[in-house]
Amino acid sequence: MNHTWYVRTATDAARARIATARLAGACGVSPVERTRLVVALTAQLRQCLTKGGTWVVTALSDEPPRADRFTVDVRPEDGRTVWHASAARTPDTEAAPAELVADDTGTLAEALFSADEDAGLLLDKLDEQQALVAFHREELHQTNQGVVALHAELDAAGQRQRELFAAEQKARREAESARGRLTFLADASAALTASLDPDAIVRLLPDLLVPRYARTVDVWLFDTPDDKRRTPARPAAAVVAARRGRPQYAADHPGGLPGVEDRPPSALAPDRPLLCIPLLTHRAPQGVITLTPPGERWDPDDAVMLIELTRRAGIALENARRYEHNRDIAETLQRALLTELPVIPGLGLAARYLPATSGMNIGGDWYDAFRQPDGSLIAVVGDVTGHGLHAAVMMSQLRTALRAYAVQGASPGTLLTQLHQFLHHLRLDLYATAVIARFQPGVPELTWAAAGHPPPVLRTPDGQVHTLDARPGAMLGIPLDQEIADHTVPLPPGSTLALYTDGLVERRAQGIDPGIRRLADALAAVPAADLADDLDASADRFLPPLLDDSEHDDDVCLLLCHVDERR
Known about the structure:
Layout (H helix, E strand, L loop, with lengths): L1 E6 L2 H17 L4 H21 L3 E6 L8 E8 L6 E6 L16 H90 L3 H12 L6 E6 L14 H9 L3 E3 L10 E3 L10 E5 L8 E6 L7 H38 L9 E8 L10 E7 L5 E8 L4 H18 L5 H15 L5 E8 L5 E7 L5 E3 L5 E3 L19 E4 L5 E5 L1 H4 L7 H13 L2 H6 L1 H8 L13 E8 L4
Helix pairs in contact: 1-2, 1-3, 3-4, 3-6, 4-6, 6-7, 7-8
């Protein structure tokens, strides 16, 4: 249904406004929507009155296609619509008749009061909305405060997390540094103690420390004579460290290093800190190590590690020097006890003794050759278990006992049996091996006996080499009663007998049998003329190839006996 009003004056506009409001209310338009619609219509009508003329206001309450909408149009009397508005309505609400507004003041007043009621409703709605807005604002404020507090807590937690992570990283770096120092200290200590050469230990220290823990390393040993023309100047801190036996730090700033005394900077190196650490032994300092830092200064933990490494280097140096001293004594004693070979017509003798060059392994090997009262020649090679001075002394006792027993003219087997009883009676927990050969004048026969010793090797005049491996006796001195038997083999003129110790033929990776075969092959390769003309020169050429794969960790004895063809 259409409702039309003609507006020429303000009164007409008021009637159209009131009628539209009532009609919208009758059509089920909500007060808020109705008020919004009427306010918009009033504003439009005010513009129309300003322009003048007759204006037509049309309200459509149930026309398709939108029966659920209440619409209002404004147009000039002879023109098209210039303004249009609509509001939602209740579709099943019937519209009021068109003559809603009478032309009297009472009706206008009533319409005014009705408009106030709508305004009151709007104000109530507005109050509700404001209260709701205030509630939501307070809720938002509380939420914001909670968010701010949460952010603060998250920031604090993040800061704590970062601090914990930084502390963990620092602890991990410190642990890795400590592990690196311990690993270095263990490896360096193993390298220092592996050598028994004092000079090698001194040379090794700079290689170990530069450039990781020091820029330069100087080792000052007190008992090493300096060339007077090139005597190096020593820093005062090094002299103080030697005198007091405590590490000294010389620099223009305090070092703060644990267990280290601070001193003024050295005049020899005023721009570089010096750390002077004494090489301590059980008796007194034997030297001082002077180091300069790899950077500006040392880390305190690095300094502690350097002091400990120097202590271990001092012990290694002391052990190496003690080893050299004992080794020199043992070698001197052993060489003094080795026999000068006798000169026997028709029988050439050549002996070689090579001490071990690694480890304290000298002192047990020996050889001897002497005459018996009946003119026979006894040739012996032996090896005492153990090494060092104890073994050298035991070897000298065996040598003396053998010569004493041989005066009675006993055979090689009997002599070895007597030596076995001698060692067994002493109970020194030392044992020995030995091989004895007896050469009798005018008898083309060799008598020999062995006790736990590598077998003799015999080369006959035809160039054939034979290993005399008849069953030997057990080692001398073991807790066992034994009678060691004699063995005999033909000994034609031109024959050569080789007696030796296991250091010549035994190798750890191969055992002893391959070495004995190599010895036999080498003896077979020596020209017969060389053996007859110069047995010593033959020994010199014959020995080195047999030792080219040796680690030189054991003594070597070799005794060559050559029977002259004219004998």
